Amino acid sequence: MGQSGQRRVAPERIAACLFDLDGVLTSTAVQHMAAWKQTFDAFLREREGTNFAPFTEDDYLEYVDGRPRADGVRQFLASRGISLPEGQHDDPPDADTIRGVGNRKNETLQTIIREHGVTPYPGSVRYLEAVRGAGLTIGVVTSSENGASVLDAAGLSQFVQARVDGLVITEQNLRGKPEPDSFLAGARALGVAPAEAAVFEDALAGVQAGRAGGFGWVVGVDRTHQADELRAHGADVVVQDLADLLVADR
User: Fold this and answer.
1) In sequence order, which ranges of the chain are alpha helices (DSSP H)?
2) Which domain holds residue 83?
3) Where is this region: Disordered (predicted)?
């Protein structure tokens, strides 16, 4: 489609859209939160007994959401005054290391996904269809190492020309969100300058990364009632659903 199509879905200067996955395109953010809670609560209960303070949604949003898995483990445990050895990437899930706890969480997440599946947000599918129809390129930038399998399970791989996920972040030694490295890698993969690309994020760390990278349009997706915080971290616009961006088209 022509320029009118581009104006419908994004500002005219935007040639590419970079989407976070969990919480933006799919509802798997809820499953991630559940997996983190199961993992951290079991870890803290074993360490501190029945007097432990459970992992909360506020903990998830502050220390874990949007960050690479090991960074989330490290940040949250530090908030509780707990320090663990780093360990290795392939540590077994029962290892009391940063990597082991992260792998424990991933094992729990895989079980949850197998039992409940992956559902894309209908509004996000509508928006992806409109973006593709307008001729803009599409990339997914996620800290999750399960990016490919989640996109396949949700039926969204057909839309995606480039994927930067946790595996790519590790392979290329990129800094995780809130640093902009992964989004910058996504822009490079699509052959556009940051100023020509839009970032779509539900995590404060992700919005902060989009702003730090000098991207042309940063959209905050408010799934957890934190619109003011998303704006404060750098979102140009905040919506509750990506379909809200198509309001002028209705």
Assistant:
1) 3-9, 28-48, 57-59, 69-79, 98-116, 122-133, 147-154, 166-171, 181-190, 204-212, 227-232
2) 30-116
3) 82-101
